[in-house]
Amino acid sequence: MTKITDHIRNANGKPIFSIEVIPPVKGDTLKNLLDNIEPLMAFKPPFIDVTYHREEYIERPLPDGTIQKIVTRKRPGTVGICSAIMHKFGVDPVPHVLCGGFTREETEDFLVDLHYLGIDNVLVLRGDPAKPFNTFKPKDNGYSYASELVEQVANMNNGVYLHEEDTALSPSDFCIGVAGYPEKHFEAVDHEIDFQYLKQKIDKGADYIVTQMFFDNQKYFDFVGKCRQAGITVPIIPGLKPLSTRKQLQVLPRIFHLQMPPDLVTAVEACENDQQARQVGIEWCIQQCRELIAAGAPVLHFYTMGKADNIAKIAKEVF
Ligand SMILES: NC(=O)C1=CN([C@@H]2O[C@H](COP(=O)(O)OP(=O)(O)OC[C@H]3O[C@@H](n4cnc5c(N)ncnc54)[C@H](O)[C@@H]3O)[C@@H](O)[C@H]2O)C=CC1
Ligand SMILES: Nc1nc(=O)c2c([nH]1)NC[C@@H]1CN(c3ccc(C(=O)N[C@@H](CCC(=O)O)C(=O)O)cc3)CN21
């Protein structure tokens, strides 16, 4: 399996198309997901990210007045989907590996499974709070920050597993991606602090950065400039999501803590229906892509969390 950093190197400056998919809700089949991304294979993504979704908590009131807490998982199957993508399309999958919901030992087992399958690329994240909570809580003996998980993966790459009683284990060879926030991670007190923690992830062994989505390229350019100034030399991949409904004008800033450029707001507000908004989202994203490519972005990474027809239209214009 080729590392993401090698895919970038092998492209020799030619921009790469890549996508991110979300596992279907349990009970669904993989077929819809694969059918959806099949048309995008024409644009030859060398890798596809598959998100990971931790457990959620449901609270069920009981007749005796107490509350039963039920733990459930809405979107299981990340590793299976990675394997399917690898074998159906011959594309390198990049599973997301989270701190949330995992002990260190469970993380080690997860990474060992990936290694068995020949999956050597991972995106290492802290992850979101478990629904319905709004603060992140690590599991007992789990990690609070992505940098700690980066360190564990980097240790495994050096043949150092969690427990020294496990002797003579082979080193893994993971290429490690991490998340970066051009508009600051919402929990960070200020840009400076957030930036120090990003630097920490790189210093502990991360090989590249993928950004949170943004709609104003200047945010990405400023972020890259700041990284370079701070001595971060790894590739910085822009993450892009074409706006696709009118509602997203409010929803996306709320979920992902980003600003919508006034021109995009005006254009979407002038739309009479979601079909028109989807078209505005496509055109906006095409402009973003052209400018990013001209500025030398190594990869354009698309968050295709459902229907991918808009991504196909964008890729057709841009690649
Ligand atoms: N489920 C998935 O596949 C994906 C999830 N995400 C998102 O990733 C976000 C958080 O993940 P990461 O960026 O990997 O987290 P991170 O651990 O790098 O940072 C999380 C927050 O903690 C702060 N922080 C980091 N290190 C710290 C330290 N040592 N001491 C104090 N504060 C520290 C950061 O400034 C930031 O506010 C979540 O919002 C999550 O939803 C992003 C992409 C995909
Ligand atoms: N905080 C955070 N959590 C994540 O899981 C996450 C990020 N950020 N940033 C990078 C990627 C991108 N992700 C996503 C997740 C959902 C949509 C999405 O399109 N969601 C809905 C809107 C929200 C809703 O109504 O639920 C959509 O209809 O487009 C996009 C990107 C997942 N990843």
From TrEMBL:
Q: Name one Pfam family in it.
A: MTHFR
Q: What chemistry does it catalyse, as a reaction equation?
A: (6S)-5-methyl-5,6,7,8-tetrahydrofolate + NAD(+) = (6R)-5,10-methylene-5,6,7,8-tetrahydrofolate + NADH + H(+)
Q: In which pathway does it act?
A: Amino-acid biosynthesis; L-methionine biosynthesis via de novo pathway; One-carbon metabolism; tetrahydrofolate interconversion
Question: What general EC class does the enzyme of this chain belong to?
Answer: oxidoreductase
Enumerate the InterPro entries for this protein. Answer: FAD-linked_oxidoreductase-like, Mehydrof_redctse-like, MTHF_reductase_bac
- Is NAD a UniProt keyword of this protein? yes
Please give the cofactor(s) recorded in the UniProt entry for this protein: FAD
Q: Which UniProt keywords apply?
A: Amino-acid biosynthesis, FAD, Flavoprotein, Methionine biosynthesis, NAD, Oxidoreductase
Per the UniProt record, which EC number(s) apply here? 1.5.1.54
Q: Which GO terms describe its molecular function?
A: FAD binding; methylenetetrahydrofolate reductase (NADH) activity
Biological processes, Gene Ontology terms = methionine biosynthetic process; tetrahydrofolate interconversion
For this record, the Gene Ontology CC terms, alphabetical, are:
cytosol
- What family is this protein classified in? Belongs to the methylenetetrahydrofolate reductase family.
The name this protein goes by in its record? Methylenetetrahydrofolate reductase
Give the species.
Answer: Fibrisoma montanum
| Source taxonomy | Bacteria, Pseudomonadati, Bacteroidota, Cytophagia, Cytophagales
